[in-house]
Amino acid sequence: MNRFHLIRRSDVSIWKKLLYYLIGIVFSLLLGGVFLKSLGINPLRYYRDMATIGLIGNYYPAKSVEGLLKLFVPLLITSLALSLSFKMRFWNIGGEGEFITGAIFAAIVAFKLGDSLPGPVVILLMCIAAFISAGVIGFLTAHLRVRFNTNETLVTLMINYIMLYIIKYIGETKADWNFFLRTDSERPMFAKFPDAAIMKGIKIGSFNLLYSVIIALLIAVVVYIYLRSTKHGYEVAVVGDSVNTAKYSGINVYFITVRTVFLSAAMIGLAGAFTAASSGTISTDITNNVGWTGVIVAWLSKLSTPVICIVSLLISVLQYGCQAASASYSQIDHNFADLMQGIFLFAILAADFAVNFKVVRTGSKKDA
Amino acid sequence: MLDVITLFLFNIVIYSIPLLYATCGEIMVEKSGSLNLGVEGTMAIGAVFGFLAGCKADSLLVGVLVSFVVSAVVGSIFSLFTITLQANQNVTGLTITTIGVAVYFFVGNALGANWPYLRDCVRLNKSFSQIELPGLSRIPVIGKAFFSHNILVYAAVVIAILIWVYFEKTSTGLKLRAIGENPGAADSLGIDIVRYKYLHIMFGSGIMGIGGLYMGLNMGGTFEGSNCWINGYGWIAIALVIFANWSTTHAIIGTFVFGFFNTLRVYNMPLATAFPNSLGWLSKIPAQFFSALPFIVTLLVLIISSIRSKKTGGSNSPTAIGVNYYREDR
What we know:
Strand content of chain B: under 5%
Number of strands of chain A: 4
Number of helices of chain B: 14
Radius of gyration of chain B: 20 Å
Number of domains of chain A: 2
Order of helices and strands of chain A: EHHHHHHEEHHHHHHHE
Mean pLDDT of chain B: 88
Strand order of the largest sheet of chain B: 1-2
Helix content of chain B: over 70%
Shape of chain A: globular
Number of domains of chain B: 1
Shape of chain B: globular
Largest sheet of chain A: 2 strands, antiparallel
Distance between the termini of chain B: 63 Å
Mean pLDDT of chain A: 89
Low-confidence stretches of chain B: none
Oligomer: heterodimer
Strand content of chain A: under 5%
Number of helices of chain A: 13
Order of helices and strands of chain B: HHHHHEHEHHHHHHHH
């Protein structure tokens, strides 16, 4: 019946792996080039403009780098966080909802305490509020998953949209209780945070290095060590490998799942707080799709922490670059970045197959 | 006053039909054991290409066929990655959504001023106009609301019923459900799992595409640079599959309920003014609550049904959903 069948393999050398992935990336760029060519755009010029994120011929190159980092920080933290739950085969696709939750709670702290406390304390409290509130969502989904086998993919998906409409409600409703909005504007508009609640940075010339960039990189180091060299990380790996193995070896699967997913969601909430604090306000599209892009980044990176750092930087360059390039090419907008992301992912998934499986001609048994 | 009710019911149908297409398509996909999160993208691609082809040929039939075929091709890509290449279903589905919506914008921006006007397509418009069902459309109040719609509305209901018959009364439908429940057992019975999955995922995706085309036509077919026609309906459809408990006939009722929420969002004011005493409170509920209601209800259904099935084992959810079938793991 089937002429061929698949065999799993793990004998592909690192160089061959890299070659497969490289072929995938080159193929994606060529395919993207075909798309660009069909619009009459010179692909090489577009790719150059994209990769240089509008730095060439720009009077304020520092602004471009700052803009890039504003995309990079939330994406990096979210992807790292998602990799935690994905390692456990817990499909937390609720990044959007957890991000919004974090941002809303950070904003509550900012508006309520921003005028009465010193800056660093306010920002710390904002981060804690975001961390815990988003973490609670993670805790609830994990609890449902382990206790009642509720499908976590669908639960987190629903929460994404519920949170989206909550932030829309806050942002679009003029009322006395609504302290999120500007009082001096007729149209509903999110107010700016008090000065103390806006994240500062280190000035390097005209470049402003936000503290969130440094913290995000520190988080990456911590996650790396956490997953690689701690007992917690080992437990995550065992539960992800096989729930039964974990059970028989005496690991408390409930506790590990709940703890890890709490951390995963809480980190995404933290990313929301950073985004809110560094832009000094919130908005209904504050996530910038980072919950979805994070899934793609985590998967492109094979859940490896160092690779996540590189890939999320590259994806940020892609997104920011396409935004910058859309200024000079009228036929195309920033959505081209999404198209390229998708093509990259498909190419990498195909390369994965070549790395993990071997196609074998089914032996003569069947033919005989 | 009765006009308000008729108009209200009429609009519920209008809002719920694209959901019915998408939900029936996704039920077919999920029954084969795959969770396809790419509904939104599949609909977007089907919508844009179906619309352009339909306008070019000035024919609704061509539009429907093209959106079906193009979306089925998208379904075959999902199948290729998840069935043949054993890639993760969630990630593949999300990527299809990302790419699908991006293609929608890509094509729209590329055409720019050359985007066709729906009003220029006389024959297409004619075939998309309302057909009054003889006799039934004369019934007061509900006649105009339910039996005076365009052809795609009636077709959606027929498709939903046909799929139900297919699942419940035919042996191929039974085999498909077996694959979704226990692919290993189905395989040992000699069912060609790979072919079954490919075909049903492609067919289901094709139906989603028609739903996308319907949305585009319903919105007058104008391309807006900021908003995709599908506007989150694909995600609501994924929620509806759960609400309908994986049954396409329940989906008819389910989409009507969700369409009801959606219509309330727009019609809460007219209703509240028409019936100030009994429905006046409607005007106090924020629109965002009605938008979120499908997701809130589905979340509750998910939680309650999983708690109940823990006790009684009662959900219709295909057991093997979301898990790739790899023969050697059996």
